[in-house]
Design a protein that fits this description.
heterodimer, A: alpha/beta, 6-stranded mixed sheet, globular, B: mainly alpha, MetI-like fold, two-stranded antiparallel ribbon, 2 strands, binds adenosine-5'-diphosphate, binds magnesium ion
């Protein structure tokens, strides 16, 4: 049995008195595509942000390729204790945000080569060549010298995916990558994600798009009020929801 | 220096014999007028040095104010608050005096053979060796020292304003942009240098442009510090000159001050153009995010 790429064990996270995650665990093996669904405010973003330590869980373990992240302190003061370990985790997990978050002062190409050069210390020529190939791959090879503000939402999100891929990550994290997009722009981003899934990219995707979840994921997790209410193969879970809450959630999303 | 040569012309040797244009040509190129023209250089020099220095002080102040280190943070806050709460003119009189006397006190204790008390009755007395500059120094050393003290005052006062502007601009950079830098493995320094600093300028520019205009308009305060600037010379040269002067004339101060008016108008108008152009250039790319600019 191989080591999972990413393992979250019994994650607890509260903002002040508000308990957002109440002991959530998940495991992503190499090549897994995990879809996270749940109503707004159920803690999906918080969970995926804990995975690369943009948020610090107050309890629970994060294991990257079998290695547990070291923490110091307790409760709200709990912090990762090893900066190098955090950097290692973050450079191997690329995050794609709902609002794209391309760096607005950099051109699209510069966005893609920024972290590989600054963080990973890769040679500039090599980074540019790879960035161009990635931009071609996501279908915006001609937009490298444009600024993010000059692109449509769908193009920006594809640029953001290229930026994530440029890190040559072990896994990609997506937080509602299509939620800020009009339906026709959504489709172009979905196609890119589907292509990545076919190539065997390990991904955790927070999404409200049940069709995407069904298409690309091999495991689906329904989060409700900070706990995993139901999980399993997408077709099973979506077609035969056991819990009343998931049934309600699904009928609400279909409507 | 061509003016000097001009004055050497035979024709200027006896001003009383001149009329019309020739009189004016000689009048406007006499020694005093050359000092007047030079004083424009003093003002421009002050601007050229005070602006970058103030920016430097501003960065230091802003970084101190934003620092995690408690002592440093308070220093930054006090610096900004103090200068903001005190009238500029008071500060301009206070800072050069403070620096001057501070230097002299230090020199007094390190250079003087017998160190008597510095305050003798109501007088501030340091020994001759401690004087800044030494009384034996050339006149230009005295001018330069006075100019340097004034420059320090400008840098400190405008540095505090700049610190406030820069602090605000740094805070205006959207947190999502910095969070993304962290998510991609950047450390605090990398995210500051690569993301926050370059994105800050567009938010700082309107404030800095405004400060620059205020700085231009504050240059006549040099006069207050006893520096022979353009205001000094305009008053000096414009005043009524009786018959014992080489170039007698009635009260012409209004013309001299009109000249200053034109000078300041050109300076402020010109820099506004430059800043506007800069603003447009910088807002390319950051257009939609900052809500201004003309990309697309
Ligand atoms: N930084 C924060 N401070 C305080 N509360 C937060 C913060 N981030 C999220 N929350 C709260 O945590 C809950 C879960 O949020 P989130 O993980 O964003 O949900 P989801 O992504 O499933 O919509 C919400 O109630 C939200 O208001
Ligand atoms: Mg969310």
């Amino acid at each position: 049995m191989t080591t999972p790429v990413l393992e979250l064990n019994n994650i607890h996270k509260a903002y002040g008195d508000l308990e957002v995650l109440k002991g959530v665990s998940l495991k992503a093996n190499k090549g897994d595509v995990i879809a996270l669904i749940g109503s707004s405010g159920s803690g999906k973003s918080t969970l995926i942000r804990c995975a690369n330590l943009l948020e610090q869980p107050q309890q629970g373990d994060i294991l990257f390729q079998g290695e547990a992240i070291q923490f110091k302190g307790q409760g709200h003061d709990r912090q990762p204790s090893d900066a190098a370990q955090v950097r290692h985790l973050r450079t191997h997990l690329s995050m794609v945000f709902q609002q794209f978050n391309l760096w607005s002062h950099l051109s699209v190409l510069e966005n893609v080569i920024e972290a590989p050069i600054t963080v990973q210390g890769r040679p500039r020529d090599e980074a540019i060549a790879e960035a161009q190939a990635l931009l071609d791959k996501v279908g915006i090879g001609d937009k490298g010298d444009r600024y993010p503000a000059e692109l449509s939402g769908g193009q920006q999100q594809r640029a953001a995916i290229a930026r994530g891929l440029a890190m040559q990550p072990t896994a990609m994290l997506f937080d509602e990558p299509t939620s800020a997009l009009d339906p026709e722009l959504e489709a172009e981003v979905v196609r890119v994600i589907q292509a990545l899934a076919k190539e065997g990219t390990t991904m955790i995707i927070v999404t409200h798009d049940m069709k995407l979840a069904r298409d690309v994921a091999n495991h689906l997790i329904f989060l409700h009020q900070g706990v995993i209410e139901e999980q399993g193969p997408p077709a099973d879970v979506l077609d035969h929801p056991k819990s009343e809450r998931l049934q309600k959630f699904l009928s609400a999303t279909k409507a | 220096m061509r003016g000097f040569l001009f004055c050497m012309f035979e024709s200027c040797a006896d001003p009383s014999s001149l009329t019309g244009l020739a009189w004016f040509a000689c009048y406007l190129t006499n020694g005093k007028h050359l000092l007047f023209y030079q004083s424009f250089g003093t003002v421009l020099g002050l601007l050229a040095l005070a602006a970058p220095l103030a920016l430097l002080f501003g960065f230091a102040g802003a970084l101190a104010k934003r620092s995690q280190i408690p002592g440093l943070r308070q220093i930054g806050q006090v610096y900004v608050a103090m200068v903001r709460g005190i009238p500029d003119v008071v500060f301009f009189l206070f800072v050069p005096l403070l620096i001057d006397q501070g230097i002299e006190v230090v020199r007094h204790y390190s250079l003087c053979e017998s160190t008597g008390p510095i305050y003798q009755g109501n007088d501030f007395v340091v020994c001759d060796a401690a004087k800044m500059p030494l009384s034996s120094a050339e006149p230009w050393v005295h001018s330069l020292y006075g100019f340097a003290l004034a420059l320090a005052a400008y840098a400190i006062v405008f540095g505090a304003f700049a610190a406030n502007t820069l602090d605000g601009a740094l805070s205006a950079v959207p947190t999502a942009q910095l969070e993304t830098a962290r998510a991609y493995g950047m450390n605090a320094r990398q995210s500051f240098v690569r993301i926050q600093l370059p994105q800050m300028w567009i938010y700082a520019l309107p404030g800095l442009a405004n400060l620059w205009q205020i700085l231009i308009k504050a240059t006549p305060l040099l006069f207050l510090l006893g520096i022979e600037d353009i205001v000094y010379w305009a008053r000096e040269l414009g005043g009524t000159k009786g018959s014992r002067f080489a170039y007698p004339h009635p009260d012409w101060r209004i013309y001299y001050f009109a000249a200053l008016l034109v000078f300041y108008m050109i300076m402020t108008w010109g820099s506004e153009k430059v800043f506007n152009r800069l603003q447009v250039r910088m807002s390319v790319g950051q257009a939609t995010l900052s809500g201004k600019g003309a990309a697309l």
